[in-house]
## 1
Amino acid sequence: MPERIRACRGSASLPGTRGASPTGARQPGAVRPPLASGAESCQGERMGKKVFGCLGVLLVVGLAFSIVLNVALIADAAGKKGTSGSGREDFQEMVLEGPTFRPSGKIAVIDLFGVISYGVYGQVHDTMVDDIVAKLKQAREDDEVKAVLLHIDSPGGEVMASDVLYHEVRKTAEEKPVVAYFDSVAASGAYYAAMGADTIVANELCITASIGVIMQTINVEQLAAKVGVSALTFKSGKMKDLLNPARTPTPEEMAYVQALIDETYAKFVGIVARERQLDEAQLRAELADGRIVSGKTAKAAGLVDETGYFEDAVEAAREAGGLDDQAQVVRLLAPFTFSAFLRTLSEAPKGPTLRIQLGPELPQMEAGKLYFLSPHVYGR
């Protein structure tokens, strides 16, 4: 028998214990020898095998997970490319009402919720604006969809994003009837986007209008002076560091920014006056000063067509689309994708956080950007 095996199998004794004769009889005064070095080596070898075995299992599990993850991501990307000619992924339909089989037609409900911004992630596409554009496109191209219901609950948002949505809603209305429903809030940029609809139904208690433009920044010049900090700016032209928070803007700069605000505001008011068939001068003098109004006041002023609830907006869309009670009302929702699942996991909080709410949570407006936004109704 090899020495290593013999050492492992031998009955090595602990120090200080009595020994035994080869026949098994205890010999008085005899002391057992220390633990054999071969036994120690064997025990260490067994421990090493266990460690390497665990590492091997972890390696195999990690490799398998990596393979599954990559296959899922490849399939996810391939699915996006193959769903339509434009590369956009179709949204799923959730039936809100109507027959399950063989409907006479469909009313597509598209949600416009939250701040309108290219900085907000989309559920399917890169941004929430891209998601809504894709939903409108899908509704236009679906022959079974006879009318579109734009469900709005938004305080507005970025000027560019709001204008893009207005353009897409107007494009859809040129092909199919579009009804906009104002839920709790449909203010500023959200109201701007709704101008592309054929009909607007608003809840009497909703907050709407807020026709205006806002741009803001902060000035930390005095704070920086108190702590002994100064900014050095090298620029190619006098307007290059416009709205620099480290210094007070000059009168010329303030006039320039105000002119930019006025130009954007003029487009907003012009679109409202044209789409709602209102006198622009009267609109500027009475309601288009940035104020918010209730749905009831908006109806009296001609800013919306009707007041009512969601079901009233559905009936308006049904009538506009020439549909009967056998039509389906479907909400377009984002399908499950593995990439969206991973994004959700990455955005999950990593640990407990302490949050003290001292007032409404305002959106983080970026310096230098124009907004159609009602900050005082955001975070209601």
Note: Residues 83-340+365-377 form a domain with the 2-enoyl-CoA Hydratase; Chain A, domain 1 fold (CATH 3.90.226.10).
## 2
Amino acid sequence: MNNLQQPRLLALGDGAWTIEFGSSIDPVIHSRVLGFCNALQKSTDIAEKILEYLPSFRSVSVYYDPAKVDGILLGSELLNLAQNSGNQVSEGRQLYIPVCFEDEFGPDLNEVAQLKNLEVNKVIDLMTSSVFSVYMIGFLPGFPYLGGLPDSLNIPRLANPRLTVPAGSIAIAAGMCAVYPWESPGGWRLLGQTPVPLFDVNHSDHPALIASGDQIHWCSINKARYAELKIECQKTNWDRDSILEIKDWS
């Protein structure tokens, strides 16, 4: 439960403020985070004073140049904005992302099904019928932490993390879902893999495909379709934004 009734202003060095809206991972608290971000974007007076802002599960960190901006005054303005922004935000983008749950793409799928006393197809059904909310981006560039995992799939991290997790891996652990945008070590349980690149430096204005506030829908595809999409996504003329228009990847 959230035990903070009002947002708190916390100093983060001499060039940033953190506005904290709660003390737990909670959809209501996160809606306040998104509400504040929405208000911040619309506040031109404040926006011109800051370098960037980073939302997380329950807070937003706002960065500024202390040589150019009065930090105390900015902190007061941010706190006032947070107290009045509420949790009214525009609906996040709906992203339908293809995932292959077959064979080598989901090395932990069978074990998860066994540990949760579920059929493998039931695990896949739970993943594809749920809507996952993006709480924050962290750990790696473009790595989204997703809420909305069904309680029946709540499972601990691996006791022994892998040294290598393939890029695009869809994973669950500790009541959350995530996607690895890069090959890296990791201790989450791997259920499938998407052929869609989650981070592209060619999109300099927004290299990460997924952003905080987005709503993610997983769409099951077979291995042959995965291979087709993998090739398509690697073409230099592939339009990444086309994913915003596609709901059926079969």
Note: The chain has a mean pLDDT of 92.
## 3
Amino acid sequence: MDDSTPIGASVFTTLRWREGRVAWLEAHLKRLRAHAERLGIEWPEDFEERLASSSPTGDGNLCQVKLSRNGQIELTLRSADYPPSPLSAVSHAAPRFTRKAQGTKHAAWTPYSDARTAAENAGVDIALLVHDGAVVDGDRCTPILLDLDGVAYAPSLEGGGIDSITLSILKPAIEAAGIPFRYARLTETLLGRASELIVVGTGVTVAWID
């Protein structure tokens, strides 16, 4: 997926993988199909049967499932490569696309890869993606802020971030623990009130930012 790849050439999702088993498959496929529809990619009627009969290439503990516009399904393994918490972070301009594509996991992924490279070049672990004065996402993760009043905040999807599967799984547990949960613009003012900042995602799992 390079700079010349059309946005709608494919759609993908990445799942945790262990010895042929994956986590939260139903949730990932539901999002994958929703993103495919937004990008105008036809969803094969036999998708799940073909997925079950496909063999992944590579090695690792993450499995990317990619559906191309021509109906091809590809499974690629890679490894998550994060150090133990706490992680370090740097801000980076959030990638922007058309309204239809923004927030989907599409083929033109180079700007997100560039954000990761910028973080690595800065000697940190994570890039926090900023647009219009607010953190809207993270590279390969979703930030959650816990403020001084004990309220948890995650970026609203209106800012252009990806709807996180990991966050959707954790949100009920956060609320069950008695922590109010809100979606909001993570502005500099709100960040200044943070007592903790964590990131969640398929690769990073759950980690806090130093």
Note: The first strand starts at residue 10 and ends at 18.
